[in-house]
Amino acid sequence: MRIRSAPPPLMNVALLKPTRASTTLGPGYAVARANDGSLNGFFHSDKEDYPFMVVDLGTAFSIEGVRILPRLNYNSTRFSGIDVRTGLTEVAGPDFGSYSRLVLFPGPVYEPVTWVAQNLTQPVLGRFLSVQRTVQTVSADACLEITELEVFARQANTV
Ligand SMILES: [Ca+2]
Question: Is residue 1 one of the residues assigned to a domain?
Answer without folding.
Answer: no
